[in-house]
Write a structure and sequence with these properties.
- It is a single chain.
- The chain is mainly α.
- The chain has one helix at 2-42.
Length: 43
Amino acid sequence: MNLWEYFWGVVILFSVVSFTYMSIKVIYKGFNEMKEMLTKLNK
């Protein structure tokens, strides 16, 4: 049973790290696009 706990721990850890990485990437690119859009609207 101990092996399954390690297995699911690794799966959950990988999922959390992947989700965090993708979220930061989307927020960063979205922020740049939003800033660019607002700059164009002001012109």
